[in-house]
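Researcher: Here's a chain I'd like modeled. Treat it as a single chain, no partners, no ligands.
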Amino acid sequence: MFRTISWAYGHPWHFWAKVVGAVVVLIIGWFWGDIQAVMLTYTTLLTVTTDLGTIVIQNTGSADTEKLMQQGSELGRAVPGARDVIQDSPG
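Model: Modeled as a single isolated chain. Structure tokens:
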């Protein structure tokens, strides 16, 4: 689930959906007569969803890093002498 959300945040349609949303909000605010209140609400919702998206993307990246480290550890145990080479390598 998190991987799908992370993919969606990086997709170009996500950007265009936010642009279209801003235009729709401006039109609604203009017809309603209070653009400032509508834009404040829209900006607040946009900020909250962006923050949540950042958390999801970081979580997905952390999970990928953990899997990579587990695979490296398994490789180090499976190949004779690999642990010595990994420990002696610089950086």
